[in-house]
Amino acid sequence: MMILAILTGVVIYMVSGMIYYTILGNKWVTNLNITPNQPNYGLLSLVTLMTTIFLYGVLRVTGAESFLDGGLIGGGIGCIVALSYAKDFIFGLGTNSKSALTIYVIAVGYHIIALTTIGIVMMFFI
Questions:
Q1: Helix, strand, or coil (residue 124)
Q2: Radius of gyration of the chain from Cα atoms?
Q3: Buried-most residue among 7, 79, 80, 85 (CB within 10 A)?
Q4: Residue 123 — φ and ψ, nearest 5°?
Q5: pLDDT value of position 71
Q6: How does residue 92 score in pLDDT terms, banded at 50, 70 and 90?
Q7: Which residue has the higher pLDDT, 34 or 123?
Q8: If phi over 0 gives left and psi between -120 and 50 gives alpha, with beta otherwise, what is residue 25?
Q9: In whole angstroms, what is the distance from residue 31 CA to residue 45 CA?
Q10: pLDDT of residue 99
């Protein structure tokens, strides 16, 4: 069940990203004043897999027992990601953008939503 939970989490993470950024269109690109390059899908897949394995491990170690537990833990990890992004923005990550706050909200919103959802769905497997 562990492998199925992790693979499901990876798929949710990637599909939710496609949906999230399709809904937002190119707002983040416009605000950053960049021309996006083709991402390195191998590295993207590896980081997604590692993040999902980490979330699964935290759910197991904490003894999460309900969908609420899964959502809170996933959302909590999403908030930790948001704090990491905040530090980067404080040190100038969004300096050249039209709206650093907009870029920040777009970036962290995806991770909070995705990790909360993955935490809930993984509870089907735990």
A1: coil
A2: 15
A3: 85
A4: -65, -20
A5: 98
A6: confident
A7: 123
A8: left
A9: 26
A10: 80
The two structure tokens encoding residue 122: 């993984």
In a 13 Å sphere around the CA of 58, the CA atoms on its Cβ side amount to 21
Q: 């948001």: which residue's tokens?
A: 82
Q: In sequence order, which residues have a C-beta less than 8 Å from that of residue 18 and are 6 or more positions away?
A: none
* Closest to 10 measured CA to CA, from 59, 47, 58: 47
Judge contact between 41 and 49, C-beta under 8 A: no
pLDDT digits over 2-28, tens only? 999 999 999 999 999 999 988 987 777
- Region 72-100 average pLDDT: 86
Cα–Cα dist 69/67, whole Å? 5
The label of the residue with tokens 């980067």 reads 88
- Tell me which amino acid residue 99 is: S
Judge residue 41's burial from the number of C-beta atoms within 10 Å of its C-beta, 0-12 exposed, 13-18 middle, 19 or more buried. Answer: exposed
- Say if pTM beats, i.e. exceeds, 0.85: yes
Whether 11 and 86 have beta carbons less than 8 Å apart is answered as no
For residues 75 and 117, the answer to whether their CB atoms sit within 8 Å is no
